Amino acid sequence: MSAPARDVLVCAAALLDQGRTLDRLSRPLTAAALIAVLITPAMPQQPPGILLASAIAVAIAGLVETYFAIRVGFDAALFRHLATASEAPDFSVVDGALRRLGLMRGAHVVDRPADGRVGGAMRLLRLQALALAAQILCAIAGASIAWMR
User: Which residues contact 46 (CB under 8 A, 6 or more apart)?
Assistant: First the structure.
C-alpha cells in the first residue's frame, strides 16, 4: 500500500472515531425515550399522545443511531489495523473475510481502493449524525408541542 493510501486510512480511522462522541450523545436520549415508552402504560393519567409518539420516534432514531455507531466503530478499527499493518494489506483477502462473516454481500465491488472504502465509511458516519439529529429534533418537537398545550 502506498504511503498516501496509508495516510488516508489513518485519517479516516481518526475521523470515524468521532462516531463514539455522537453515540455518547445519543445514548441518554435513547434510554430516556425507552423508559418513557415503558412507563407510560403504568401511569394513572396518560400523557398527551404526542409525547408518547415523540418518545417512540426518539427511541427508534436512537436505535438506528446505535446500529450506525457499531458499523462506524468497526470500520474505524479495521482502517486502523490496515494502516498500521507491517505489510501492505490485500483488500481481496479483507473482502473475503468480510463476506465469510456476512458483513459484505457478493455484489460489492472486489478490490475497491482505499479511497472508495473510506467514502463508504464516511457515508455511514453521516447517516449516524443524521440519526442523532432526527432524535434531537423529535425530542424538541414533542416537548414543544406538549409545552404549548
Answer: 40
Instruction: Let me know: does 19 contact 128? Beta carbons within 8 Å.
Output: yes
CB 21, CB 110: distance < 8 Å = no
pLDDT in tens, 22-47: 999 999 999 999 999 999 888 888 77
Which domain range does residue 71 map to?
Answer: 3-148
Block residue for cell numbers 429534533: 137
**Tally of domains within the chain:** 1
DSSP state, residue 41? G
**Amino acid letter, residue 65:** E
**Rounded Cα gap, residues 9 and 38, in angstroms:** 42
In terms of Cβ atoms closer than 10 Å to its own Cβ (0-12, 13-18, 19+), residue 101 is exposed
Phi/psi for 102 (5° steps) reads 80, 15
